[in-house]
Amino acid sequence: MSDYKDKYEMVIGLEVHAQLKTQTKIFGREGCEFGREPNTETGTVTMALPGALPVLNKECINMGILAGLALNSKIPSRCKFDRKQYFYPDLPKGYQISQYDEPICQGGWVQISNKKIGITRAHLEEDAGKLVHAGASGLYGSAYSLVDLNRAGTPLLEIVSEPDMRSSEEAREYVEKLRNILKYIGVCDGNLEEGSMRADCNISIRPIGQKEFGTRAEIKNVNSFRSLVRAIEYEFIRQAEIIEEGGKVIQETRLWDDNSGTTSSMRGKEDAHDYRYFPEPDLMPVEISQEWIDSVKAKMPELPDEKVERYIKSGLSEYDANVLVNQIDMAMYFDELLKKGADAKTASNFLMGEVAAFLKEEKITINESKLTVDNFVKLLDLLKKGTISNNIAKGLVIDILNTGKDAQALVEEKGLSVISDESSILPIVQKIVQSNPEQVAAYKGGKDKLFGFFVGQAMKETKGRANPQLLNKLLKQELDK
Among the three residues 414, 447, 465, which one is the final residue of a domain in this structure? Predict the structure, then answer.
């Protein structure tokens, strides 16, 4: 593959479908909750019953505007809905209500680490249902398919990128960034496993240095970041091998199989005219005033890039800031710590270290843990005042995560406060120096690193409770005699 990458360049564009977090569907009253019994979230519009007319959910427009503003898009003064004609068993109407030439968002961009990825458009549409295939196949088998229309009519925002990505890593970073933005503004939960965010990948290749694009293939059924990377890498090799063997890549839609790690032909790629788009006659165009846009913009929360910048100003490294921001629950928790006066760097060290390890082991989120913000602030305050050492604090945070006990109460219960009394530490220091004459001689002979040995012995004697600054001072005095 490295040989191919030396010869060919990937050209990648993504179509990301984000399910909007509305309580009801885009054109009906039914709910959108995931995991309900099949066909329990259906209604007259979903079932395409005679005389049933769609009624637009205004909250979908609000969320579309908010997403567009967050993605640096232009919000036009008018958008309209269109019928996209195609037949499929989980689409009872025989067409999908979508947006074609007048979408809710025009243009835009998303910044990833090394470049801006352009956005062509973002439009609103309804989702289709779901087919469940079962049974045996073959001459004597009885294969069958069941239709679940719970998902039909669920509101989607389809975000179409420009073909600006040149590697699977860039594609992954773009989708991760897009997911983060949509989660922070509250329009999509970004749950790939439940299908509330899906990506179709358009990929072509061309000889390095060539300006013209090659023939693209669209890959469907990509529902995880890992699958996205694997699908792109596989498709790159497939297309390169076709060209190397003198063949031509054909424009088609291909299906990704995560188990085999391969793509397979699904159908010839349709163009817009194949769908026979025409304006939806049962829905009026939506006029979007500047006042409406401004009212939505006023509700815009802090975006991920803005949060990263604020964290860096508070004392975090760019890496630490990004790690926190990429975990929205952790970032919100961290913000509450900062509001209560916690030191940013110290708090982030604990969150990204001991706390993160505990949460991963227990498979829970920070909000599901017993470590309340107020109790964590107490622990950090005890550390700041010198009442406990850093090592003791690391142990205590695990105790709190397990028990939820008050930090101050745990310190008193376990007798863990730092010993800062010189009269208590000096005898211990003197005993250690007298008990290790060989190490003392070696230290005085120039082996300065042995100082750490004496510190370790003293900490062991005091069970980690000795004040580090005072201990170092007393040890140095005794060893320099």
Answer: 414
Q: Are residues 253 and 360 in the same domain?
A: no
Asked, for residue 327, whether it belongs to a domain, the answer is: yes
The two tokens of residue 291 are 């006042």
Whether 466 and 458 have beta carbons less than 8 Å apart is answered as yes
Please report whether residue 297 resides in a domain. Answer: no
Q: For residues 398 and 432, state if they share a domain.
A: no
Domain-located, residue 183: yes
| pLDDT of the chain, 481 residues: tens digit per residue | 557 888 999 999 999 999 999 999 999 999 988 889 999 999 999 999 999 999 999 999 999 999 999 999 999 999 999 999 988 888 899 999 999 999 999 999 999 998 999 999 999 999 999 888 776 555 556 678 889 999 999 999 999 999 999 999 999 999 999 999 999 999 999 988 788 899 999 999 999 999 999 999 999 878 899 999 999 999 999 999 999 999 999 999 999 998 999 999 887 666 656 888 999 999 999 999 999 999 999 999 999 999 999 999 999 999 999 999 999 999 999 999 999 999 999 999 999 999 999 999 999 999 999 999 999 999 999 999 888 888 889 999 999 999 999 998 988 787 766 666 677 678 888 888 888 888 878 878 778 888 888 878 877 877 777 777 777 888 888 787 7
Sign of the C-alpha dihedral computed for residues 456, 459, 463 and 467 taken in this order? negative
DSSP assignment of 455-478 equals HHHHHHHTTT-B-HHHHHHHHHHH
Distance between CA 477 and CA 35 in Å, rounded? 69
